[in-house]
């Protein structure tokens, strides 16, 4: 009987891996055996007889009875196991546990130990409280300055030269010294009013208010409040500096009323969300270049000024005094107030793409703190009605106690990270990852509906060395939320078919998802290369989506175009940047940014850059994309074009697809490459795309058309930096030719 049970356990384990049922508690096998052993086998009474024939007959009868009893017990045990399997496979028969975030057996709930609340916070998480006096204000400003980017003063910089400092240079500049640091930080602000507080938000730093709504944490009577200026002003297009590399920083769930307005001169992976800006919002500084970003679920009382931002997405923003400027593409989804009117742009002005009636919105989970000091995880629900998908939305979230939330703390041991975090997921808990780097020995597998993995301060999961993904969401598990994390490729020592950094669903499991309870990817940032000294990091594709009904909200999938220098190594293209090595052919390999196989997948704010084949492959039907920014790789040769790789490919079987605000750029640094077209899709009336464009950024080669061989292109170096547009995918009105 024990052998049979062991065999059954193997079957159940295989079923578990394929995502067909929730995991078993370790006590369950013993419980099954105890049930079996409690079935008592009664032996027949001895019959007193002197006849040998009677004795033989009695032995036969006993053997037959024993066989019958054994068969009966075996059948009973089989029925028990089958019933147990059915019970675990059908989630509708299990109790919903909103506190833990998933669905689990009630017997299992009773055995899961609560997490401490308040949680024990590592040093990478700092909590601040409102200052009450001038000395407290000074002390808090001094403390926060420790978490800002390093600065260089004008005197320090020009002391190294014989030239006097020009009069128009600023007194100091923030630098990019922390661009590839391993340090991660979350600055948490308890509810209250913060007067006179000004600080720069550095690389890999998240500023998070702990109130239920943004105005619960308000910065006022200040010059700048939390802000980001242009960096490297003495070395990059002085005196303006740059915002092109100002990545990986964020502000969430606060209000700010700064005298100079809120300045946020940042680019990719630097979102502002769930904020109330009670002044102007300045997304630039002077003539410093910046390459796009995301503002989501916000109110801006003043004017939004994009300055020279190449492209920008505003999603669910209440614009009280409108928005101005911008270079190439602005996309507005679900915005209210003074939203600009849609237009196709020009040679010198941005296209404006507007979706006034999105079908869906899902906001990012966030954490709050009660007066008692206890923490909560708040999980906004998916919204579908017209009143709920427009404008800002503060309130109405599902509230989960931190007793059901595991606060992850990183270890340098990949096995430790995996075992601790996976155990919490298997217990049905949500994960909140504290800032830091988490090497993984195996994939974190999400098996329960509605579970949350939320990173703070750019918590970074490093891929297992065998090529399996950092996170695997099992098929037919609706409502999962993955948010606020970085996923980083490793140097692979083993190979599996189609390695990736995140996989949702399975290639051999048909999963259309749940249209009433979609999954969420929010502020998920992948990178292949950059921070590692070893340039052999790789993966085949960054994100693979096999399941349907997934909502993407601000994803940047980046093959590094520049990487950290070894100590003593000199930059290989110092005229481009003296700070980094520029990636060359054969380094930091990744074929595709994203492959979408699932149906009804939505992407609002998708950035993919520099992969060595098609940047995006969309095979699933009924997809939707609003705002897509893509740079083709810098280091490829003409074979890239000869193989017909593109920036945005819709699969041949797709019948329905909608996309707006699609920009694809070329900067072929090393070889003269001429790509036939930027976007490829099958001819179908159900494929509707608007405000499509290409840009010749610099160097050699070009993109010869916008979509399916149609549309204008750059013809000379004088066209550098100009958009070449089609208002739709018919390209009946070339703009910029």
Keywords:
737 residues; alpha/beta; 8 helices; 32% strand; globular; disordered N terminus
Walk me through this protein's architecture.
By secondary structure, this protein is of the alpha/beta class. The longest helix is centred in the N-terminal third of the chain and has 38 residues. A hairpin with a 5-residue loop joins strand 23 and strand 24. Strands 26, 27, 28, 30, 32, 34, 36, 40, 42, 44, 47, 49 and 50 form a 13-stranded mixed sheet that branches. Helices cover about 15% and strands about 30% of the residues. The N terminus is likely disordered. The protein is globular.
Unreliable spans are 1-53, 80-102
Per DSSP E runs of 2 or more residues, the count of β-strands stands at 50
Q: Return the average pLDDT rounded to an integer.
A: 88
How helical, in percent, are the residues? 10-25%
The number of helical elements comes to 8
Shape: globular
Strand content: 25-35%
The radius of gyration is 29 Å
Major sheet characteristics: 13 strands, mixed
Distance between the termini: 79 Å
What structural class do helix, strand and pairing data support?
alpha/beta
Oligomer: single chain
């Amino acid at each position: 009987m024990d052998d049979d049970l062991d065999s059954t356990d193997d079957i159940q384990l295989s079923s578990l891996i394929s995502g067909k049922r929730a995991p078993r508690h370790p006590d369950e096998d013993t419980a099954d055996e105890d049930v079996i052993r409690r079935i008592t086998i009664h032996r027949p009474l001895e019959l007193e007889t002197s006849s040998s024939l009677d004795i033989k007959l009695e032995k036969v009868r006993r053997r037959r009875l024993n066989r019958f009893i054994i068969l009966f017990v075996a059948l009973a045990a089989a029925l028990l196991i089958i019933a147990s399997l059915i019970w675990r496979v059908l989630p509708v028969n299990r109790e919903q546990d909103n506190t833990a975030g998933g669905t689990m057996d009630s017997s299992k709930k009773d055995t899961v130990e609560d997490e401490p609340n308040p949680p024990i916070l590592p040093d990478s998480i700092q909590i601040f409280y409102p200052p009450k006096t001038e000395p407290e204000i000074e002390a808090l400003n001094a403390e926060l300055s420790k978490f800002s980017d390093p600065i260089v003063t004008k005197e320090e910089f020009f002391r190294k030269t014989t030239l006097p400092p020009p009069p128009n240079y600023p007194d100091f500049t923030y630098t990019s010294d922390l661009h590839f640091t391993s340090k991660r930080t979350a600055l948490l602000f308890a509810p209250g009013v913060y007067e006179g507080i000004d600080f720069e938000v550095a690389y890999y730093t998240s500023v998070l208010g702990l109130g239920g709504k943004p105005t619960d944490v308000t910065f006022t009577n200040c010059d700048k409040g939390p802000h980001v200026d242009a960096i490297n002003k003495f070395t990059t297009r002085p005196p303006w500096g740059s915002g092109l590399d100002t990545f990986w920083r964020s502000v969430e769930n606060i209000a700010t009323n700064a005298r100079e307005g809120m300045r946020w001169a940042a680019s990719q992976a630097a979102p502002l969300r769930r904020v109330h800006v009670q002044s102007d919002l300045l997304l630039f500084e002077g003539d410093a270049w910046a390459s796009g970003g995301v503002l989501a679920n916000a109110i801006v009382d003043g004017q939004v000024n994009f300055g020279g931002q190449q492209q920008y997405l505003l999603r669910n923003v209440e614009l009280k005094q409108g928005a101005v400027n911008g270079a190439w593409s602005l996309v507005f989804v679900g915005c209210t107030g003074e939203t600009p009117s849609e237009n196709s742009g020009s040679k010198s002005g941005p296209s404006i793409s507007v979706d006034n009636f999105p079908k869906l919105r899902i906001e990012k989970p966030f954490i709050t703190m009660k007066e008692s000091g206890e923490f909560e995880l708040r999980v906004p629900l998916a919204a579908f009605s017209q009143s709920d998908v427009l404008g800002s939305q503060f309130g109405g979230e599902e509230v989960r106690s931190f007793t059901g939330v595991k606060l992850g703390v990183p270890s340098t041991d990949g096995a430790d990270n995996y075992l601790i975090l996976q155990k919490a997921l298997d217990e049905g808990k949500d994960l909140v990852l504290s800032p830091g780097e988490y090497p993984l020995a195996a994939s974190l597998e999400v098996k329960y509906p509605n579970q949350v993995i939320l990173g703070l301060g750019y918590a970074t999961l490093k891929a297992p060395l065998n090529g399996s993904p950092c996170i695997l969401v099992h098929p037919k598990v609706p409502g999962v939320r993955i948010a606020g994390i970085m996923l980083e490729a490793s140097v692979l020592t083993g190979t599996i078919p189609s390695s990736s950094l995140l996989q949702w669903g399975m290639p051999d499991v048909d999963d259309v998802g749940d249209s009433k309870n979609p999954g969420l990817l929010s502020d998920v940032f992948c990178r292949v290369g950059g921070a590692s000294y070893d340039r052999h990091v790789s993966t085949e594709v960054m994100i693979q989506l096999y399941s349907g009904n997934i909502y993407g909200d601000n994803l940047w999938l980046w093959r590094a175009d520049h990487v950290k220098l070894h100590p003593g190594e000199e930059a290989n293209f110092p005229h481009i940047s003296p700070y980094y090595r520029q990636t060359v052919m054969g380094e930091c390999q990744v074929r595709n940014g994203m492959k979408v196989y699932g149906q009804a997948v939505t992407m609002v704010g998708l950035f993919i850059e520099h992969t060595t084949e098609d940047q995006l492959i969309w095979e699933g039907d009924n997809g939707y994309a609003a705002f897509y920014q893509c740079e083709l790789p810098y280091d490829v040769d003409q074979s890239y074009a000869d193989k017909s790789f593109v920036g945005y490919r819709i699969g041949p079987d797709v019948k329905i697809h909608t996309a707006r605000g699609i920009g694809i750029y070329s900067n072929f640094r090393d070889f003269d490459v001429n790509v036939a077209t930027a976007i490829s899709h099958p001819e179908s009336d159900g494929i509707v795309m608007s405000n499509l464009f290409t840009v010749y950024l610099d160097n050699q080669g070009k993109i010869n058309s916008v979509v399916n061989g149609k549309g204008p292109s750059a013809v000379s170096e004088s066209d550098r930096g100009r958009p070449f547009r089609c208002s739709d995918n018919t390209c009946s009105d070339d703009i910029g030719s």
